[in-house]
Amino acid sequence: MNPQPFDPGPLAEVEHNTEGGRSTLVFVRHLRHSPVKVWRALTDPGQLRQWAPFDPDRDLAAIGPASLRTTDGHTTEEFPANVRRAVPPELLEYTWGDDLLRWELEPRGTGTRLTLRHTVDGPAWVPRTAAGWHLCLVVAERLLDGRPIGPIVGREARKYGWDKLHDAYAAKLGIAGTARPEDVFRDA
User: Fold this and answer.
1) pTM for this structure?
2) Range of the domain at 26
3) What confidence category does residue 184 fall into, taking pLDDT thresholds of 50, 70 and 90?
């Protein structure tokens, strides 16, 4: 089945840095919705299920341990998480397995400047991560607009332009030699 026509829009503002073998993607996107509304989308399990690459076992607005479950086709994997900081509606920081995510929300007119800092295992993961969050945040914005389309995650993302986004972010970030999409999405 082919997906409905889908335009992921322009690339986000991105940069990255690497220190001690770990790399941090800085991903900036402007959303049409208030920080309060975006905060709920980032923390409420019911909303996260509709756009994020994981399904949390609890609300992420409270500090402490959590569990994040990912599903790709028939494969489900559970990752430990720990919410380190939750300052509504400005800052959310948590671990996802070995990754660290820091969401910063700043009001901009009637909207929000969202800055995600996602620390991963190395530079090869940075364009993969950027492409994935790009699609997820397009889906999140549609959810906030009242036009939900459901999550686009795992191998399904390739039908929505993940490959092109991966390559475009790799070029924009100057990260050569990253894995091809077929190396990322192996059939189970």
Assistant:
1) 0.92
2) 13-176
3) low
